[in-house]
């Protein structure tokens, strides 16, 4: 899921965007999650500009290394070693 929004009236403005990814993976024991957001709030008047920017992320990424071909021949989703964060 992704979202974004923004507006500007000449004096005040904002922009915000973010995404959420929840991946269950095709391999066993390999779920991953990504949450990210970026926001920019601004004000401008009489030659002065003030901006506030915020960036945040929360990730939980899991993956696996190589697996012996004999294991994969038995089960393509099998994992030789896990959790590799």
Provide an overview of this structure.
Helix content is about 5%, strand content about 55%. With about 80 residues, the protein is mainly beta. It is rod-shaped and about 70 Å long. It has a domain at about 1-60. A hairpin with a 2-residue loop joins strand 3 and strand 4. The mean pLDDT is about 90. The chain is built from 1 helix and 4 strands.
Question: What structural keywords apply?
Answer:
85 residues, mainly beta, 54% strand
**Helical content class:** under 10%
Mean pLDDT: 89
Helix and strand pattern: EEEEH
Rg (C-alpha, Å)? 21 Å
Strands, count: 4
Strand order of the largest sheet: 1-2-3-4
Shape: rod-shaped
What fraction of residues sit in β-strands? over 45%
For the largest beta-sheet, the strand count, sense and barrel status come to: 4 strands, antiparallel
